[in-house]
Amino acid sequence: MPLRETKRALIVVRTYPIPALSGVEVSCTAAITDKGEWLRLYPVPYRFLKPDKRFKKYQWIDVSVIKASDSRPESYTPEINTINVLTDPLPTDNEWQARKQRVYPLRVPSLCHLQRERDANKYPTLGFFRPKVIERLRITKATPQWTQAQLDMLRQGHLFEVQPQAELEKVPFDFHYIFRCEDEACKGHALHCTDWEMGQAWRSWSKQYGADWEAPFRQRFETEMIERNDTHFYVGTIQRHPNRWIIIGLFYPPKPKTPLLFEK
Q: Which long-range contacts (CB under 8 A, 24 or more apart) does 239-243 make?
């Protein structure tokens, strides 16, 4: 029997849900434990959680977990009914200082650095870094509807007490950030971004602006991320494709006016 343990962790990432046999629809959730270690919680059927279990990013939670069969060392399976939300989200005042104090100790120099570490040690499979230059956001059309197999997953019988009002909407676009690392040997990267905020923004703005949704979307996730914010990427590997990294979350405080003492 896998060992059950309780983890205290700060939620920092939640991805846009996808259909899954393991839980109708699930999100990948990344967190930092109170010991300063990465933690991947999967699966989390977020829209099916009771209201008091629906954590927000940068809230501390306690949760009972067991080590996942997933070979990635940071991956744990949460017992959903044990989630205990402990705090309000950490504030964003003073240039996000409270959040920086928690996430900056895990910051690494570059994606290239993470790739070398993972190739050598099969670890880590989660990471956090500041790109040297974000060149642009690439938006490409994706399949507009779920496949029949995915619809079957979404419509499978389940025992969750909470039922979402609407079936999970497919985002018919893929979003990739084109960027370069601080690494001298970096040849550039194009990483798919699955951040929940991007998917939710598309859902909201496509309804508000119709066919003109792309202009405000680019203003938020391209222009502001490049020009106004000190943008960092949370990244992780994919279980079925262990050499492939994707962006699972964005960290975007305003560009600092003064250096902070705890910055590396």
A: 239/70, 239/71, 239/72, 239/75, 242/71, 242/72, 242/118, 242/122, 242/125, 243/118, 243/119
Task: Dump pLDDT digits (tens) for 89-139.
Answer: 999 999 999 999 999 999 999 999 999 999 998 889 999 999 999 999 999
Please state the domain extents for the chain. 4-85, 93-251
Region 51-61 average pLDDT = 97
The answer to whether the pTM exceeds 0.90 is yes
76 forms beta bridges with: 41, 67
Given a contact cutoff of 8 angstroms between Cβ atoms, the answer to whether 257 and 243 are in contact is: no
Distance, in Å, from the CA atom of 150 to the CA atom of 24, rounded to the nearest integer, reads 9
* CATH class of the structural domain 4-85: mainly beta
**Residue of 200, 192, 189 whose CA lies nearest to 175:** 192
Run of H or E including 20:
strand 18-20
Beta strands (DSSP E) in 72-196 are 75-78, 84-85, 126-129, 133-141, 173-180, 189-192
27 vs 11: which has the higher pLDDT: 11
